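Practice problem: Protein HGH1 homolog
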Amino acid sequence: MLLETLLLLTATKAGRDIFEKKSVYPIMREFHKWETDVHVTAACEKLVEVLIGDEPEPGMENLLEVDIPEEVEEKLTKADAREQEELEKEQERMKQEEEEEKKKRSDTEGSEKEQEAGLIR
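Answer key — C-alpha coordinates:
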Protein backbone atom coordinates (compact mmCIF):
# COMPACT_ATOMS: atom_id res chain seq x y z
CA MET A 1 0.00 0.00 0.00
CA LEU A 2 2.89 2.33 0.79
CA LEU A 3 4.46 1.77 -2.63
CA GLU A 4 1.13 2.46 -4.32
CA THR A 5 0.91 5.71 -2.34
CA LEU A 6 4.39 6.65 -3.52
CA LEU A 7 3.31 5.84 -7.06
CA LEU A 8 0.36 8.22 -6.72
CA LEU A 9 2.73 10.95 -5.55
CA THR A 10 4.66 10.58 -8.81
CA ALA A 11 1.53 11.53 -10.77
CA THR A 12 2.46 15.22 -10.54
CA LYS A 13 5.59 16.93 -11.75
CA ALA A 14 6.17 18.35 -8.28
CA GLY A 15 6.04 14.86 -6.78
CA ARG A 16 8.46 13.46 -9.36
CA ASP A 17 10.84 16.38 -8.75
CA ILE A 18 10.82 15.76 -4.99
CA PHE A 19 11.49 12.05 -5.51
CA GLU A 20 14.40 12.92 -7.79
CA LYS A 21 15.87 15.38 -5.26
CA LYS A 22 15.51 12.84 -2.44
CA SER A 23 17.16 10.08 -4.54
CA VAL A 24 14.23 7.68 -4.21
CA TYR A 25 15.26 5.59 -7.23
CA PRO A 26 18.45 4.09 -5.70
CA ILE A 27 16.50 3.26 -2.55
CA MET A 28 13.78 1.50 -4.54
CA ARG A 29 16.38 -0.33 -6.63
CA GLU A 30 17.99 -1.76 -3.48
CA PHE A 31 14.62 -2.52 -1.92
CA HIS A 32 13.63 -4.47 -5.02
CA LYS A 33 16.76 -6.63 -4.73
CA TRP A 34 15.83 -8.14 -1.38
CA GLU A 35 12.01 -8.07 -1.40
CA THR A 36 10.47 -11.52 -1.88
CA ASP A 37 6.73 -10.81 -2.01
CA VAL A 38 5.68 -10.80 -5.66
CA HIS A 39 2.97 -8.19 -5.14
CA VAL A 40 5.39 -5.82 -3.46
CA THR A 41 8.04 -6.29 -6.14
CA ALA A 42 5.42 -5.61 -8.84
CA ALA A 43 4.43 -2.36 -7.12
CA CYS A 44 8.10 -1.46 -6.75
CA GLU A 45 8.71 -2.10 -10.46
CA LYS A 46 5.82 0.19 -11.40
CA LEU A 47 7.23 2.95 -9.21
CA VAL A 48 10.72 2.50 -10.66
CA GLU A 49 9.33 2.68 -14.20
CA VAL A 50 7.92 6.11 -13.44
CA LEU A 51 11.07 7.26 -11.65
CA ILE A 52 13.41 6.34 -14.51
CA GLY A 53 10.99 7.20 -17.31
CA ASP A 54 11.02 10.31 -19.44
CA GLU A 55 9.02 13.32 -18.32
CA PRO A 56 5.58 13.54 -19.93
CA GLU A 57 4.92 16.06 -22.68
CA PRO A 58 3.98 19.64 -21.75
CA GLY A 59 0.36 19.78 -20.67
CA MET A 60 0.52 16.27 -19.22
CA GLU A 61 2.40 17.09 -16.04
CA ASN A 62 -0.40 15.68 -13.86
CA LEU A 63 -0.79 12.06 -14.94
CA LEU A 64 -4.03 11.68 -12.98
CA GLU A 65 -5.74 14.23 -15.22
CA VAL A 66 -4.79 12.68 -18.57
CA ASP A 67 -7.78 11.59 -20.65
CA ILE A 68 -7.50 7.94 -21.62
CA PRO A 69 -9.62 6.65 -24.51
CA GLU A 70 -12.17 4.04 -23.41
CA GLU A 71 -10.73 1.23 -25.56
CA VAL A 72 -7.24 1.87 -24.17
CA GLU A 73 -8.61 1.90 -20.63
CA GLU A 74 -10.30 -1.48 -21.27
CA LYS A 75 -7.03 -2.93 -22.57
CA LEU A 76 -5.16 -1.63 -19.53
CA THR A 77 -7.78 -3.08 -17.19
CA LYS A 78 -7.47 -6.48 -18.86
CA ALA A 79 -3.68 -6.28 -18.73
CA ASP A 80 -3.85 -5.46 -15.01
CA ALA A 81 -6.14 -8.45 -14.43
CA ARG A 82 -3.72 -10.76 -16.30
CA GLU A 83 -0.80 -9.36 -14.32
CA GLN A 84 -2.68 -9.96 -11.07
CA GLU A 85 -3.36 -13.59 -12.07
CA GLU A 86 0.31 -14.10 -12.91
CA LEU A 87 1.35 -12.61 -9.58
CA GLU A 88 -1.02 -14.93 -7.73
CA LYS A 89 0.40 -17.95 -9.58
CA GLU A 90 3.96 -16.83 -8.88
CA GLN A 91 3.18 -16.31 -5.21
CA GLU A 92 1.62 -19.78 -4.97
CA ARG A 93 4.63 -21.32 -6.73
CA MET A 94 7.02 -19.60 -4.34
CA LYS A 95 4.95 -20.73 -1.36
CA GLN A 96 5.07 -24.35 -2.56
CA GLU A 97 8.82 -24.17 -3.10
CA GLU A 98 9.27 -22.76 0.40
CA GLU A 99 7.15 -25.55 1.91
CA GLU A 100 9.15 -28.18 -0.01
CA GLU A 101 12.39 -26.64 1.22
CA LYS A 102 11.14 -26.69 4.82
CA LYS A 103 10.16 -30.35 4.44
CA LYS A 104 13.59 -31.23 3.03
CA ARG A 105 15.31 -29.45 5.93
CA SER A 106 13.04 -31.19 8.40
CA ASP A 107 13.74 -34.57 6.81
CA THR A 108 17.48 -33.85 6.81
CA GLU A 109 17.43 -32.80 10.46
CA GLY A 110 15.44 -35.92 11.35
CA SER A 111 17.96 -38.15 9.57
CA GLU A 112 20.86 -36.44 11.32
CA LYS A 113 19.22 -36.92 14.71
CA GLU A 114 18.61 -40.59 13.94
CA GLN A 115 22.27 -40.99 12.96
CA GLU A 116 23.38 -39.27 16.17
CA ALA A 117 21.10 -41.50 18.22
CA GLY A 118 22.60 -44.55 16.52
CA LEU A 119 26.13 -43.37 17.33
CA ILE A 120 25.31 -42.75 20.96
CA ARG A 121 23.99 -46.28 21.53
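Discussion: The chain has a mean pLDDT of 82. Students who identified this feature from the C-alpha coordinates alone can consider the problem solved.
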